[in-house]
Here is the input.
Amino acid sequence: MSPLAFILIGLLASATVTLVAWRGDRRRDLRRCAKCAYDLTAVAGRVCPECGHAAAAESELFRSRRHHRSFLAGLVATIGLAFAAMFNLSQGSWAQRVPRPVMAVLLNFFGAPPASGGTLPAPDPKLKSSSKSWDRLVWAHQAAVGLDAWAKAVLASRGPISDAELAQLVPLADAAHALFAQVGGTFSIEAWPVDRVPDGVARVRAGAANDSELSARLNWVLAELQFDGADYTHRPDFAFVPDEIIQQALGHQDAAVRKFGIDRFGRRLQLALVTRKLPLPPGLSQVEAIAATDSDAAARRRAQDVLAYLDSFFPNARQHGPSPSR
Here is the structure.
């Protein structure tokens, strides 16, 4: 007989014990103390001479007598055997077969990311390529911790994003986007810790539709947790970097922030050209000004590259500003 057969037989037996113990002894012809079950058939009144318990009503003496200890033992055994049956029926390694709520607890205890002096907590790169499913799950959990830190940084404040706050958040945005891109090489069955981060932010965004400033922050969080270069608008958590953030970055006094604005403008531009469903993003005149006169050589080259990309697909776009949609 297979182990699964033994587990199922035990599960049936423990479930039976649990149900019988919960149903209890339902005799209606015997007066019993509700507390100690002493036979009160020959006793006048409702006070138990054995334990002194006084029943509030006569009907209390005819209640079913449940076997609480047997019920609890049977319930624990039933739950344990049910998990054992699920584990036995599941496919993959043990780390994939353990229920996700249980695995989430284990990861929180044993999967903390290493200390990092970078902008975000970074996962251990050796774990991602490990042959062990547990190691790869730990990597995904550590990546999720880093992405969650990005979300918390953006949502730590409320209201419009100031220039000073934007300068602080830009390195985190780049780190979060690079970290999320690494998830593309993991097995989907082991990427669920990462998926929980954008799913949670998307749920918050759904309830913040009437708060434009909070929605802008939430959209920025989600926009960095997207893959580049394809039509991924089917995702329920799809988001753009808000137009106002791109334009604010393009006009920022910090060259690093301007380069961030150029990159995010270019990402929006690429999506518009690939999908042919979206208009050109705002900020084109700012990108042209950076390409022509910016004091930072790297920013100038990056802006020139973005404009060359645009001109190669739509030579007349900068003169006439057409939508790339067909």
In short: The CA atoms of residues 265 and 315 lie 18 Å apart. The two ends are 65 Å apart (CA to CA).
